[in-house]
From TrEMBL:
Keywords: Transferase. Its EC number is 2.8.3.-. Pfam families: CoA_transf_3. InterPro entries: CoA-transferase_III_domain, CoA-Trfase_fam_III, CoA-Trfase_III_dom3_sf, CoA-Trfase_III_dom_1_sf. GO terms for molecular function: transferase activity. The keyword Cell inner membrane does not apply. This is CoA transferase.
Length: 348
């Protein structure tokens, strides 16, 4: 939906045949920026409607909803009409279902040569139908193996990082192909998206044979100190990436030595012991208040309610729902966050 000023994607029409998270998140980001997004749903609706109203709203605000049984002859004809009026179609289903239902560029180009067809799948449009839910992909791609304490089992982030990341990647691919002025197929997989986000870990292994390690407190592979630290009360994230940061931090915390990055990396254990001892003198909130004015990257570990309470500008209203808004801020444009559509609200 467009805001008071025409959004940067005003006039762009996008169809979505999506369920749950990755696809709907991609198109919602585009709808926030002014695109007209029509959600194509079966008679029973997107399965995420069954999770909760707030869950559905968090991924589908500002869209339209039409009910089309795309497996039927009449449904395919109706979808073809919509494709003829649209710039792009984004779908996230199993690859076999995408091909069987005719949701590829080859099947739909008869209606619109310039239609951009984006397929979000687990392992690629021709990568098979193996189950590819977010947590499964995180395990398969090496994310879980890097997460958690080395003395414990591998673990998973507490949110759907693979789905969200793939949604944003798919939105980028969709827009890139629209800008090209050509129709065509765009293929985005959860698995390859997550591999791409292991960029420097993968480069270290591929070029230097260095296998990534799971480190205590989520420590960074290269920078020291850059991890979570206990304090007198609560935990502090500290990220010292260069010698200037270290000099300022060390002066404030009363830590001597380790002036050079190479020295800190080589003497990791000693550095972490010294920093841990120094941070025990104050609370996480206290250290944040002391270090941030000095330009040191530091933050007390907060839970989501605390983060939302301290970020009122990030919260928007869409109909009856309070949601986290679009993180893309564009001069002169304020999104008009519309409510999520009722099932079939725009059938006519």
């Amino acid at each position: 939906m467009s805001g008071p000023n025409s959004g940067p994607l005003a006039g762009i029409r996008i169809l979505e045949v999506g369920t749950m998270l990755a696809g709907p998140y991609a198109t919602m980001m585009l709808a926030d920026l002014g695109a007209e997004v029509t959600k194509v749903e079966p008679a029973t609706g997107d399965i995420s409607r069954q999770v909760s109203d707030s869950y559905f709203a968090s991924l589908n605000r500002g869209k339209r909803s039409v009910r089309i049984e795309i497996g039927s002859e009449a449904g395919r004809a109706r979808l073809g009409e919509l494709v003829g009026q649209s710039h792009a179609l984004l779908v996230n289903l199993k690859p076999s279902a995408i091909r069987r239902l005719g949701l590829t560029y080859e099947a739909l180009r008869q209606y619109n040569e310039k239609i951009v067809c984006v397929a979000i799948t687990g392992y690629g449009l021709y990568g098979g139908d193996d189950p590819a839910f977010d947590y499964i992909v995180q395990a398969a791609a090496g994310i879980a193996a890097l997460t958690g304490d080395p003395a414990g089992p591998p673990t998973l982030p507490g949110y759907s990082s693979a789905d969200n990341s793939t949604g944003l990647t798919a939105a980028l691919g969709l827009l890139a192909q629209i800008v090209s002025g050509r129709g065509g197929q765009v293929d985005v997989s959860l698995y390859e998206t997550m591999l791409s986000q292991l960029n420097y870990h993968a480069a270290a292994y591929l070029n230097d044979g260095k296998r990534p390690e799971r480190r205590p407190h989520g420590a960074h592979s290269y920078y020291v100190p850059a991890q979570i630290f206990p304090t007198a009360r609560g935990y502090l994230a500290l990220f010292v990436t260069h010698d200037g940061f270290w000099k300022t931090f060390a002066a404030e915390a009363g830590v001597d030595g380790f002036e050079l990055m190479a020295d800190r990396a080589a003497r990791r254990t000693e550095v972490l012991d010294a920093v841990t001892a120094a941070l025990a003198a104050d609370t996480a909130v206290g250290w944040e208040a002391r270090l941030r004015p000095l330009g040191i990257p530091a933050a007390a570990v907060r839970d989501l309610p605390e983060a939302l309470d301290t970020s009122p500008d990030a919260v928007v209203t869409a109909g009856q729902f309070r949601l986290v808004g679009n993180p893309i801020r564009i001069d002169g444009y304020v999104p008009a966050y519309g409510p999520p559509p009722r099932l079939g609200e725009h059938d006519d």
